[in-house]
Every structure is written in C-alpha cells, then in structure tokens.
From TrEMBL:
Transmembrane in keyword set: yes
Topology class, membrane: Single-pass membrane protein
Cellular localization per UniProt: Membrane
Keywords: Membrane, Transmembrane, Transmembrane helix
Residues spanning the membrane: 47-64
InterPro entries: Uncharacterised_pept_Zn_put (IPR007343)
Identification of the protein by name: Neutral zinc metallopeptidase
Amino acid sequence: MSQQWGSGGGWGGGGYRPQQQPGWQPAWSGGPGAPPPRRRQNPLQRVLMVMVSLAVLAIVGWVITSFSTGGSSNDVAYQNDNYQPPPPDKDPPPLPEPQTYSEARALVSQNPFYAQTAPIPVRCDTTPISDIDAQSDAQLKSHFEDLMGCLMRVWNPPVTAAKWTLVRPTVTIYSTSITTKCGKSGINAFYCGADQQVYFSNKLAEGVPAVKKTRYGPDLVMAHEFGHALQARTGILISAKALGQQSGDESTDLQYSRNLETQADCFSGMYLRAVSESQKIKQADVPDIEATYVAIGDDTLSGKPNIVGNHGLAASRLYWGKVGLGTSEVGKCNTFTASPRLTR
C-alpha cells in the first residue's frame, strides 16, 4: 500500500525551546487545522502534523532459529512471564523529541534501544486468525487488543532497559475509511503518531489477498504497526521524518521513509521469533509468510521493478524480515546505518 503524507494536523503539546545550532533551520510548517501552540514549540514536533500514517508493509522472509517442538508448553521456560501488560493507554505521554538535528541523527543511528536484546521465548496465548472476512469487528478488536498485550510482553524489557517508556496502543477497527488525528485513511492498517494508536481495516484482505494465505498474516501486519510504535516511543520516528524533510531532497526523504518501514519489518520479525514456541509456528508456515512479505513490496504492488518508493522493494522486505526473524539483538535492525542498497 502507498504511504500518504498530508496536513494531518492536530498534533499539540511541546513545551521546550530547541537548542539553536548551525544548520538548525526547520523548513516545514504545520498543516491547516493545527491548533495554536500553547508555548513555544520544538520545530521537530511539527513534523508529526503532516504525518497521515505509517502504512502497513508486508513482512518477508524467515530465518527463525527455533520452531515449536509440539511439546507441552509447561516444559518451556518463558521469559518475562510474570509481566502484566498495562491496559491500553488512551492518553499516552508525549512522544520523545530531539532538540537538534544532531540529536536526531544520533537517535536514528545510535539509539540506546539498539544496544538491547529482546526476550525469547515469550508466551502469547492468542489464537492466530487468517480469514479476516469471517470475523466480526468485535472479534477482530478483541484479538488485536490481546495481541498488543503479547507485543508489550516482548518489547517492554528492551525499551525500558534503554530508558524509554513504552505504552500500549488501543486498536480501532474500521471499514473503508476513517478520519483520525493523522487525517483520513482508506483501507489500510496504520499507526498514528498523533494519538499513538493503531488502526486496522476489516477490508484489508481485499487489497492485500496474501494476508489471508497464512494464519499469521493479520498478526504480522499488526506486529509491523507496533514496530512504528517502538520507533515513536524511542525518538526514532520523529527524528527520521525531521531529517528527511530537512534534507529538502525527495530521494533522501524517501530513503528515510524506507529505513523506517524496513526497520518495522525487522522488529515484527523479532516479535514473531520471540513467540514462535507458544504460537506453534512450523516450518510449513514459512512459504506463505514469505509470500505475504513479497506481495507488499513497492515493485510488486506497482508492477514497476525499478520503482523508487517509500516502502521498499520486495527483496528489501524479504531481507529485513529474515534479519529480524533470525535475531534477538535489536541493533541488527538498525536500517539507518545499513547500506542503502538493502533498503531500496
């Protein structure tokens, strides 16, 4: 699916004065409908005023190192099992923001989050769904709300170890269109940085049939969107958008967008690896999972093999999916220091 950027105003808050440094000349402005700032705002904060959504990307590849053995779950020493996920946060604290472009560059490339390791194995007792069309909106919401709890169990340890704060998003199910603080979106699945919540269209499989080819498809989609929540809560998201816009160069801006998207794929792969035991993921599931990733590459969707898009080619989806599925080291998902040819 294509990524949409527009004047999705409504982003308020802020409250500190940025440290002025050479080159610190914000080139963007808030979109129409944005409320006046209560206090002098950090220019980087305004980036989120033009963020409509970080759309769903498929997750490709499979290099997971441990599959379900079919044995009793009582025999597994699950990590972080005493953790009780918090309820969905409808009023989350403001997202962390860099105060300078120099700090923004450090947050995307040298973030303390990259030094952490995700726990494995982690328990997730949800039952995966494949046929979205067969589920009511209430069933979808219940399933994905439970999934957010599983994602919190995997990701809270490395996020808090890096001295960041993770919050549990709410999940909103909609049909063909929805208007949020990030603007209007059609059939999609997305994380909205303006309210820090996740949205999922019950018509998603109509545009992305591959999502229904594996019973893990919908969960992979939402794990990707939670990957954007991780970026937002660690300062990576707003920093990357600021740097892309500050460059004044479309190709550079697209590169930062692809870095965000492929990193979210990598994070979701790490999640799948962490819960593979409790979710009974088998080697036989691999081909369909890979097909889902490939189906959402920019080249696959457009039919243009050399397209320069904002999500990345199918080969990039495949590569970073494999990276995530083969590691518990968050730093392996640092797409911002990787060769650009790996995020085309």
